Amino acid sequence: MKLNDQKKAQPGRRIGNHRIIAFLGGQSTVYVLGLLLLIGLIILVYSKVSFVFYPIKVFFSTVVLPIILATIAYYILRPILRLLERLRIPRVWGILIIFIGLIGLITLLVVLVFPFLKGQFTNLVDEFPSYFQQMIIKLDLFLRSSIFSTYYEGLNFNVNTLLDKGLGDIGRMFTDTVGGIASGVTSFISALTGFVLAIVTVPFILFYLLKDGEKLPAFIKKLMPPRMRDDAEAIFKDADHQISAYIQGQILVAICIGIMVSIGFRIIGMKYAFLLGVLAMFTSVVPYLGPAIAITPAVIIAIVTSPFMLVKLAVVWTIVQLIDGKFISPQIMGKSLKIHPITIIFVLLSAGSLFGVPGVILGIPGYALLKVLLTHLFQLYKMRYNTFEQDREMHYEGVKEK
């Protein structure tokens, strides 16, 4: 036997069939390990020359905010534009009608609603320290007369000392905190002159999104290789459906919750009912965490007012959550996102830690888009695996063949 034939007859000499590599999974393991090593080297190199990408970072940080705001407005206003087109109104004229309506609505809110909300907010800020002090005192009295009095008194907790030293000047503390936040935001805006420019550009971006937004997927599709166009079109459709369902549904649900909370609090005689309803409306865009934030000031006011008010508050809040959970959200939102509640909580916590308040607000739709992309990529992987796997018993089930 020739030497070459002997080498061919000894497959164990090949890297992919080495005993260790075979134990780890075969030749594909070498490719996976090499890919991971390559990714690590790329990250290492980029971290060493990160200054090169600073202009790109500044560009994206300037562009992202107006694009996000314009995109949200686009998905809110797109159904109205489509309705106007069904009435045979040209698209450009429909956009102008929408813009005129938005200007009128914003003017109406600024003239009629904003002064009332500002007055209620100012009064709440002035009275909140007193509410907080009274709540501490009432909780102290309740614990001293409850079944937990023995354990509570054993803590040697003196509420008067706490109020004198820690909360004696809580009004100033609260005002300073609000003022500090306001001054921080003001300095932040003044430092970033691009922020104001970004806000100004939102109407222009929104105009072109409404005018040509539905042509954008087709334009991007033409830029891609013909073999990838069908898959790209499917991804665009699913992503568009996810974003549209989430934004439009969340806005409608938030408005419904704000109206129900305002009416319910008004019926039971809760102070600042309208302001608390608006707070519930804005915070409801954040699943699970939003309602907890909205109910906190209402609970403090109810505890100070009377124990019966706290009971009425619990009844109203329970009714609102039941109506939302059983009727409003299922009808408006449906189950389009198909995200497990535990996953939502983890996404909110992670996005909030990484990106702050914007991360909490945009974490869920961002996760939904990422899920769409990864789902399609995994589907393509399964199709490719089935194509090259000759043993049909080892194929993925339920995969459509191209």
Can you characterise this structure?
This protein has a domain at 1-48. Helix 5 crosses helix 13 (289-305). It is 81% helix and 0% strand. It contains 16 helices and no strands. The protein has 402 residues and is an all-alpha fold. The two termini are 46 Å apart.
Alpha-carbon distance between the two ends: 46 Å
Helix content: over 70%
Low-confidence stretches: 5-16, 180-191
| Alpha plus pi helix count | 16
Query: Based on DSSP secondary structure assignment, what is the total number of beta strands?
Result: 0
What pattern of helices and strands is seen along the backbone?
HHHHHHHHHHHHHHHH
For the sheet with most strands, the description reads: none
Kindly name the structural category: mainly alpha
Q: Compute the gyration radius: what is it? A: 29 Å
What is the structure about, briefly put?
Residues 5-16 and 180-191 have low confidence and may be disordered. With 402 residues, this protein is mostly helical.
